[in-house]
Amino acid sequence: MSPSLSTDDAVSHINATPRLHLRRKRIIVAMTGATGTILGIKLLIALRRLNVETHLVISKWAEQTLKYETDYHASNLRALADHVHSINDMAAPIASGSFRVDGMIVVPCSMKTLAAISTGLCDDLISRAADVMLKERRRLVLVARETPLSEIHLRNMLDVTRTGAVIFPPVPAFYIRPSSVDDLVDQSVGRMLDLFDLDTEDFERWNGWKKE
Ligand SMILES: Cc1cc2nc3c(=O)[nH]c(=O)nc-3n(C[C@H](O)[C@H](O)[C@H](O)COP(=O)(O)O)c2cc1C
């Protein structure tokens, strides 16, 4: 039987009130084994305050680094996200381009994960979800952390930038005259979220020279 649509049906389809799909902004947060896990923690807290739905993926080495450099346990970290996916779950919604998200941030991003993304090696959920962002032309921010940088690191950064990702090294802005590491982290997190058109409103923006 061929599908049929009466003229009346067609007219009522056309005249139907458009459905408003007002969903919360949705961002994937991936954490990998580079130093700077506090950046990921503070980013998740900021996104919670901004009422953004978060999908969190943590690598094995991110968990180790988290334990070493903060008082957080992975369970505290997971509690900050709306959804948590195992890095091995290649069937998670975020592994598909048909699942609608507003972007992804890898914070911090190790040179290993950067290399995986730059070559399209989708062997875990982080590199797969990042690959999806690039193919769907969605916002992908990599808070790439290493120093000094080798030619391989720089080449990988250039390749992903050319494909549409934003490399955001967590480099401190000393012009804010920080009085604590917290100030520097808040400024970095605020600037990362600027890239998603989100304003944390908890860091000082450059407004020209301050008058004495
Ligand atoms: C304490 C600690 C700090 C590390 N810091 C960095 C770093 O800043 N940048 C980096 O690229 N790798 C760093 N590594 C090495 C990565 O954890 C390692 O390459 C790992 O394979 C990354 O895997 P992942 O990207 O799946 O998390 C660090 C490792 C440890 C144990």
Automatic annotation (TrEMBL):
- Key words of the record: Flavoprotein, FMN, Membrane, Mitochondrion, Prenyltransferase, Transferase, Transmembrane, Transmembrane helix
Query: Would you say which domain of life the source belongs to?
Result: Eukaryota
The UniProt record gives the binding positions of dimethylallyl phosphate as Y175, R191
Q: Which Pfam families match?
A: Flavoprotein
Q: Please provide, in alphabetical order, the Gene Ontology terms of the cellular component aspect for this entry.
A: mitochondrion
Coiled-coil segments on the chain, per record: none
Can you say where in the cell this protein is located? Mitochondrion
Q: Which InterPro entries match?
A: Flavin_trans-like, Flavoprotein, UbiX-like
Q: Where is the signal peptide?
A: none
**Record Gene3D superfamilies:** Flavin prenyltransferase-like (3.40.50.1950)
Q: What is its main location?
A: mitochondrion
Segments crossing the lipid bilayer: 27-47
Q: What range(s) does the Flavoprotein domain occupy?
A: 25-194
Which Enzyme Commission number(s) are listed?
Answer: 2.5.1.129
- One MF term in the entry's GO annotations: flavin prenyltransferase activity
For binding FMN, which residues are annotated in this chain's numbering? G33, A34, T35, S59, S110, M111, K112, T113, R145
The UniProt catalytic activity note for this protein reads: dimethylallyl phosphate + FMNH2 = prenylated FMNH2 + phosphate
The subunit structure is: Oligomer.
Function in brief: Flavin prenyltransferase that catalyzes the synthesis of the prenylated FMN cofactor (prenyl-FMN) for the ferulic acid decarboxylase FDC1. The prenyltransferase is metal-independent and links a dimethylallyl moiety from dimethylallyl monophosphate (DMAP) to the flavin N5 and C6 atoms of FMN.
Q: Which family does it belong to?
A: Belongs to the UbiX/PAD1 family.
This one is known as Flavin prenyltransferase PAD1, mitochondrial
Gene from which the chain derives? PAD1
